[in-house]
């Protein structure tokens, strides 16, 4: 299972409302929870925060990929959030983050989990793609950028 | 009975589609008399890329590598048992590296006549970043490839052996 199989318009939020890292992680967790993707909301948040303690998943060029191996899901799930103005996510380059891909996978899904993270790493290599995503007006536009035109 | 296809390789990645591919390959081996090998590739290339991209910490790479090695063992043993059910001996191969390259190299090394793989992904995007390893394998190997579809039909064929 790759990125496209997980891509779901209902799990894309543009724009995100939160102004801080922790609030934003909660907002993404709540998005997943609202669509019935989580078995245990509190555990999901706890596992994502635990991973952030080891090192921020805020990368460079405004991209952040919060992720966790967690029993709070019974299948791999992904949501996407966009904060056009950027928020401080303690990113590696010190710049605000605007594109958020949250991936939660159960412990026995190592292979698919790695595959989806690799897909995201590949697609976000393109600065042009990242700019288009950051400027997307809504979830439909995000879907159009990834899916066949 | 020995037909023109003497050596079959089936690629296993743990997906349901790859297990169906294994079941079909067992049926094919039984009816053709060909020998059958099953290959799992631990995708260390992807793990390294995730560390380089700083998506993974080194500790995560180690943990996931261990998980993938356990998966390799589990899925290959499952396929071996499927073979035993139908009196087909299966050679188990576990490699690590870039998946489609390892498959391509193994086909050359083992002089395989046919590669059997599970269903390739649906075309939902023209972005080649989304080609998965099975898609890449289909495009890059040099031997004939059999793409197995329709899990229910495969199950019926397997059960009828």
Question: Tags for this entry?
Answer:
heterodimer; A: 149 residues; alpha/beta; Mannitol-specific EII, Chain A; five-stranded mixed beta sheet; 5 strands; 42% helix; 18% strand; B: Rossmann fold; five-stranded parallel beta sheet; 6 helices; globular
Mean pLDDT of chain B: 91
SSE pattern of chain A: HEHHEEEEHHH
Rg calculated over all Cα atoms of chain A: 14 Å
The number of helical segments of chain A is 6
- Give the beta-strand count of chain A: 5
Structural class of chain A: alpha/beta
Order of helices and strands of chain B: EHEHHEHEHEH
CATH superfamily of chain A: Mannitol-specific EII, Chain A
| Residues in helix, % of chain B | 40-55%
Secondary-structure blueprint:
The complex is a heterodimer of chains A (149) and B (161).
Chain A lengths: L2 H4 L5 E2 L7 H14 L6 H14 L8 E2 L2 E3 L7 E11 L9 E9 L4 H14 L3 H8 L4 H8 L3
Parallel strand pairs in A: 1-4, 2-5, 3-5
Antiparallel strand pairs in A: 4-5
Helix pairs in contact in A: 2-3
Chain B lengths: L6 E5 L4 H17 L2 E8 L1 H9 L5 H28 L4 E7 L2 H12 L3 E4 L15 H8 L4 E3 L3 H10 L1
Parallel strand pairs in B: 1-2, 1-4, 2-3, 4-5
Helix pairs in contact in B: 1-3, 1-6, 2-3, 4-5
Write up what this structure looks like:
The complex is a heterodimer of chains A (149) and B (161). Chain A has 149 residues and is α/β, with parallel strands linked by helices. Chain A has six helices and five strands. Chain A has a single domain, classed as Mannitol-specific EII, Chain A. The two termini of chain A are 21 Å apart. The mean pLDDT of chain A is 94. Chain B has 161 residues and is α/β, with parallel strands linked by helices. Chain B is built from six helices and five strands, in the order βαβααβαβαβα. Chain B has helices at 16-32, 44-52, 58-85, 99-110, 133-140, 151-160; strands spanning 7-11, 35-42, 90-96, 114-117, 145-147. Chain B has a five-stranded parallel beta sheet with strand order 3-2-1-4-5, with helices on both faces. In chain B, helix 1 runs parallel beside helix 3 (58-85) and helix 4 runs parallel beside helix 5 (133-140). The two termini of chain B are 16 Å apart. Chain A binds chain B through residues 1-5, 54-55, 57, 59-60, 65, 67, 69, 92, 107, 110-115, 117-123, 125, 146-149, and chain B through 13-15, 43, 46-47, 49-50, 53-57, 59, 63-64, 67-68, 71, 121-127, 129-130, 132-133.
């Amino acid at each position: 299972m790759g990125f496209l199989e997980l891509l779901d318009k209902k799990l894309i939020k543009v724009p995100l409302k939160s102004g801080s890292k922790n609030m934003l992680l909660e907002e993404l967790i709540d998005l997943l929870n609202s669509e019935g993707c989580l078995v245990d909301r509190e555990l999901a948040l706890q596992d994502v925060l635990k991973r952030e303690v080891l090192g921020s998943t805020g990368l460079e060029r405004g991209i952040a990929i919060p992720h966790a191996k967690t029993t709070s899901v019974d299948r791999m799930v992904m949501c996407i959030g966009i904060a056009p103005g950027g928020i401080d996510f303690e990113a590696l380059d010190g710049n605000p983050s605007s594109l958020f891909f949250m991936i939660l996978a159960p412990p026995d899904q190592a292979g698919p989990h790695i595959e989806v993270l690799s897909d995201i790493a590949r697609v976000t290599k393109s600065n042009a793609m990242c700019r288009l995503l950051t400027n997307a007006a809504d979830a439909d536009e995000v879907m159009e950028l990834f899916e066949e035109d | 009975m020995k037909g023109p296809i003497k050596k079959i390789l089936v690629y296993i990645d743990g997906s349901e589609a790859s297990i169906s591919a294994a079941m079909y390959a067992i049926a094919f081996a039984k009816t053709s008399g060909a020998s059958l090998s099953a290959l799992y590739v631990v995708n260390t290339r992807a793990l390294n890329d995730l560390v380089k991209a700083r998506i993974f910490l080194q500790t995560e790479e180690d943990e996931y590598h261990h998980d993938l090695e356990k998966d390799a063992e589990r899925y290959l043993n499952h396929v071996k048992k499927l073979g035993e059910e139908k009196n087909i001996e299966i050679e188990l191969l576990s490699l690590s590296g870039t998946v489609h390259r390892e498959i391509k190299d193994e086909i050359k090394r083992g002089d395989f006549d046919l590669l059997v793989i599970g269903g390739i992904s649906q075309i939902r995007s023209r972005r080649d970043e989304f080609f998965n390893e099975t898609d890449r394998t289909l495009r890059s190997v040099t031997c004939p490839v059999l793409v197995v579809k329709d899990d229910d039909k495969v199950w019926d064929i397997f059960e009828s052996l």
